[in-house]
Design a protein that fits this description.
Blueprint lengths: L8 E5 L4 H12 L6 E6 L2 H10 L5 E5 L5 H7 L5 E4 L6 H6 L1 H21 L4 E7 L8 H17 L7 E7 L9 H10 L4 E3 L5 E3 L3 H14 L4 E5 L3 E3 H11 L6 E3 L11 E3 L1 H6 L1 E2 L3 E5 L8 H4 L11 E2 L8 H11 L3
Parallel strand pairs: 1-2, 1-4, 2-3, 4-5, 5-6, 6-9, 7-11
Antiparallel strand pairs: 8-10, 9-14, 12-15, 13-14
């Protein structure tokens, strides 16, 4: 990590969420002489709790909502770098209230973009999800359009402003995810309920998500989408790994695929993989091939190549012991 934060003001939207708190602790521990870190969110209770946990005077708290342009614009005054983590992430919530996902994930992101372009912000790193690739649910669709809005705005911004996107899969222990559900069922001696034993998901820790975001901050260029290569595990493997770790013999009940779920997630579509750059531990995609030029959509094309999308079933597959080790590494168990 470069010492890029020295004497800088940083804004983290959604700063009281799982990623926001992990990222805050990470940059504070690195002692990079940060001037101020501003936590921007709308939940005063979460801010109260975090304020009592972290007493560092460089950390400041701003009550606001990314849906409100004026509150975003006010928060961005004198900010150097923005990390945009605020989002509606729960698939069921977005399915029942898709317009709320539009307001937060798309229009809220546009408020970040417009405010950054009208202030002195130098770089914004946006957090996206594997569910944005060939989306089948409202959360993924809103995140896919969020990415499109960012890429479109990247074509016409101040020369000294950089916008880049990180896209990653399932974060172990994130709110509403399967692993905490399994752990709760195991501790309550209940049978484990799984959707499809062969369903796969990318697996990464919150620390690895932070590493991806910092890589994007250090090396991402305008319009880049950066993806960290990640292993995956089947739902069956995850369930059996947790049963083995807790030394429990409980039944596994298959309940079937739920609404809004894919069998396998993807981090890169076929079309993106063709133009992606392989960076050893990362993929980089940049969809900015021109200013507004319609010939690429109507009269000009490229020969297609046969590639597979980068999915959770064609990446490295974790076995039971490897899954246990990764969950332990995450600090969840």
């Amino acid at each position: 990590m470069k010492n890029s934060f020295k004497n800088k003001n940083i804004l983290i939207t959604g700063g009281t969420g799982s990623f926001g708190k992990t990222f805050l602790n990470y940059i504070l521990k690195k002692h990079y002489d940060i001037k101020n870190v501003y936590i921007f969110s709308r939940d005063e209770k979460k801010q109260f709790d975090l304020r009592n946990q972290i007493t560092n005077p460089v950390v400041k708290f701003i009550i606001g909502d990314v849906r409100d342009y004026n509150s975003v614009l006010d928060a961005m005054q004198n900010i150097d770098y923005v990390f945009h983590a605020a989002a509606l992430k729960q698939v069921p919530s977005c399915e029942f209230f898709p317009l709320e996902a539009v307001k937060t994930n798309i229009l809220g992101t546009n408020n970040i973009l417009t405010s950054a372009n009208r202030t002195k912000v130098k770089k914004v790193v946006f957090l996206s999800t594997d569910k944005s690739v060939q989306p089948v649910n409202a959360m993924g669709m809103s995140k896919a359009l969020m990415e499109k809005v960012i890429v479109a705005k990247s074509r016409n911004i101040r020369k000294d402003l950089t916008l880049c996107i990180t896209r990653y899969g399932n974060v172990i222990g994130s709110r509403g995810s399967v692993i905490p559900t399994f752990i709760e069922q195991i501790k309550s001696n209940k049978n484990l309920t799984i959707t499809d034993p062969s369903m796969t998901r990318f697996m990464m820790t919150l620390d690895e998500a932070v590493q991806l975001v910092m890589y994007a901050f250090d090396y991402g260029k305008n319009g880049d989408i950066l993806i960290k290569k990640s292993p995956a595990a089947s739902i069956d493997t995850i369930a059996k790994a947790l049963l083995k770790y807790f030394k429990k013999k409980l039944s596994i009940k298959v309940i079937g695929t739920r609404q809004g779920e894919k069998k396998h997630e993807a981090l890169l579509s076929k079309e993106e993989k063709v133009i992606s750059e392989n960076l050893s531990k990362f993929y980089k995609v940049n969809l900015i091939n021109s200013k507004i030029d319609y010939t690429n959509f109507y009269s000009r094309g490229k020969k297609t190549q046969r590639v597979e999308e980068y999915r959770s079933d064609n990446t490295i597959q974790l076995d039971i012991n490897q899954t246990i080790n990764l969950i332990k590494k995450s600090g969840l168990i």
